[in-house]
Amino acid sequence: MSRPDSRFDGNCGMFAFAVADAAFDAGKSARFVIAHDAESMEHFRRGQFHLFHVAIEIDGVLCDARGRIPAEGEMLSFMAPPAPEAKVDRFEVDHEIRSIIRRKTRWTVSFEKYAEDAVQLLATIS
């Protein structure tokens, strides 16, 4: 995969968008898996939280730019130190959640730029 660093520094959501789109194109199911510190779903929807990481679950397999993540507890293992207050929730891939991810991440690369990487990742977890 050609851009390993950018997929974590604020662009994890864009990478997840690309993987979700590739999964849907391949007839697979996908859900966003978001590590955050929102106190409630209302706070989440209002954007009153910190977003730590966005991963994706494809047909029950949790992954991000590293590939398959063996356990939900390892989702933030790349962070030093990991965020102890992080909660992990799963969300349907829809416009509302995509909008929240766009607002809450410091993305610099559009999800379209990750299309090839997303297809490659999908091939490794299938």
Q: What proportion of the residues is helical, as a percent range?
A: 25-40%
Shape: globular
Instruction: Give, in spatial order, the strands making up the sheet with the most strands.
Output: 4-3-2-1-5
Helix and strand composition category: alpha+beta
Report on the structure:
The chain is of the alpha+beta class and 126 residues long. It has one domain (12-125). The chain is built from 4 helices and 5 strands. The protein has helices at 12-25, 41-46, 95-104, 115-125, and strands at residues 30-36, 51-58, 61-64, 67-68, 87-92. It has a 5-stranded antiparallel beta sheet, with helices on one face. It is globular, with a radius of gyration of 13 Å.
Q: What tags apply to this protein structure?
A:
4 helices; alpha+beta; 33% helix; 126 residues
Task: Give the SSE map.
Layout: H1 12-25, E1 30-36, H2 41-46, E2 51-58, E3 61-64, E4 67-68, E5 87-92, H3 95-104, H4 115-125
Antiparallel strand pairs: 1-2, 1-5, 2-3, 3-4
Helix pairs in contact: 1-4
Compact summary:
By secondary structure, the chain is of the alpha+beta class. It is built from four helices and five strands.
